[in-house]
Amino acid sequence: MEVLKNIRVYPLSNFITSSKTYINLPNELRNLTTKEQEDQLGFLHIIENDFKPSALLQKLVDYTADEGKILIIDIVSLWSQQKQRQPGAIYMNSLSCINITGLIAFLELLYDSPMDALRRCQVDRFDFRLRGIVIDNLSFLNFENDNNYNVINLSKFEKLFKILRKLREFLGCWIITKSFPMEFYNGIENSLVDKWSIKRKGGVAQYPTRLPESYMKGMDLVVCKEVANGKAQYARVGAVEK
Which keywords, in A-to-Z order, does the entry hold (predicted)? Predict the structure, then answer.
């Protein structure tokens, strides 16, 4: 027993890394990046105003369904309610993930003990490769301690990206996240407008969504859905100085 007291236990992720998988882009996004960039695409953020799982997101999931499993963290509670579920998809749909602290806690469990985390998704077989993680929708997250928003919740977004980066290194999976464009916050969620702005010298730098700039800059590719002449298309976006 004295020997056991001196044994230190480390997460398996400290010693094992998986070969990385990369996002297979559908035709709608192919012209937004070079072939070299696409071959190394591990982090993608989509800005669009679809409440339901969009056709683009479903294509991104379908493109890798035959090669492994995709974990969909269903914050919007719409993916898991579809009559025809995505083949090869695993759904995490829990009240514990509708706030940023609970989401981070689940992702940390996935990093420290993947099987325990996946059991919460009603998975009982683990003979598969987790190829990707989809988080839909970050704009629906509830935030704590609203009066200290900038101090507490912006730092939590940094923590969120840190654990996503660790998961990519450990499991090799790609990461796709989604949020709403400005119209969402300027309309039914108007009370959030000022809180999402990040002030810098010379003005406010922001992407066309209200997620922290530090989080957005960690993405390999950020795309935004636009409608012109009644036709929807996606454009690559970056920070805009105002």
Answer: Membrane, Transmembrane, Transmembrane helix
Q: What is the arithmetic mean of pLDDT over 83-98?
A: 83
Supply φ then ψ for residue 163, to 5 degrees: -70, -35
Contact 129, 68 (CB under 8 A): yes
Residue with tokens 């369904």: 65
Which residues, in sequence order, are CB contacts of 53 under 8 Å at separation 6+? 78, 79, 82, 136
> Parallel, antiparallel, or unpaired: how do β-strands 231-236 and 221-228 relate?
antiparallel
Structural domain range at position 199:
18-241
**Residue 2 belongs to a domain:** no
- Using an 8 Å Cβ cutoff, are 44 and 30 in contact? no
In 2-63, beta strands by DSSP E:
43-47
Do the domain assignments include residue 177? yes
Please provide the distance, in angstroms rounded to a whole number, between the alpha carbons at the two ends of the chain.
64
Position 7 in a domain: no
Do the beta carbons of residue 21 and residue 131 sit within 8 Å? yes
Q: Each residue of 61-71: pLDDT tens digit?
A: 887 656 789 99
Distance separating alpha carbons of residues 38 and 33, to the nearest angstrom: 6
CA distance linking residue 22 with residue 132, whole number of Å: 9
Domains held by the chain: number: 1
pTM for this one? Answer: 0.84
pLDDT in tens, 168-180: 999 999 999 999 9
**The CATH number of the domain where 59 resides is what?**
3.40.50.300
Average pLDDT, the chain: 81
